[in-house]
Amino acid sequence: MKASKPKKVSRMDGHAVSYVACNNGTSAFVTRSGELYLFGKDTAHCDSNGLVSTLHGVAVTHIAMGKAHSIIKTADGQVYTMGMNNKGQCGRSQPLSREGNS
């Protein structure tokens, strides 16, 4: 794939963006009002505008994105994770294996 020249993200027009992050396939934008928008492959929990609807009412300040998971920090210091957790990388208990062993 050939690199492209910088282009404006018109879907973020009207939003004051304070923080951005990306991975291979997704771009994340945090607005000054604390909303998190995702565009690309990791948008399963977003509305049609790209807003992460599962975080409604949560003031997001930062996001860090890996290949298959993301970590979100809020204004009040809470931490949320999303994505693959097959090795416990999201800080939640690991799912049971297919054999029933963890």
Structural account:
By secondary structure, the protein is mainly β. It has a domain at 15-83: Thrombin, subunit H. It has no helices and six strands. It has strands spanning 17-23, 26-31, 36-40, 60-65, 69-74, 79-83. The strands form two sheets. It has a three-stranded antiparallel beta sheet, with no helix packed on it. Strand 1 (17-23) and strand 2 form a beta hairpin. It is globular and about 40 Å long. It starts with 16 loop residues before the first strand and ends in a 19-residue tail after the last strand.
Q: What is the general shape?
A: globular
- By secondary-structure content and strand pairing, the structural class works out as mainly beta
Cα distance, first to last residue?
Answer: 40 Å
User: Biggest sheet, in brief?
Assistant: 3 strands, antiparallel
**Text of the CATH class of one domain:** Mainly Beta
Radius of gyration: 15 Å
Low-confidence stretches: none
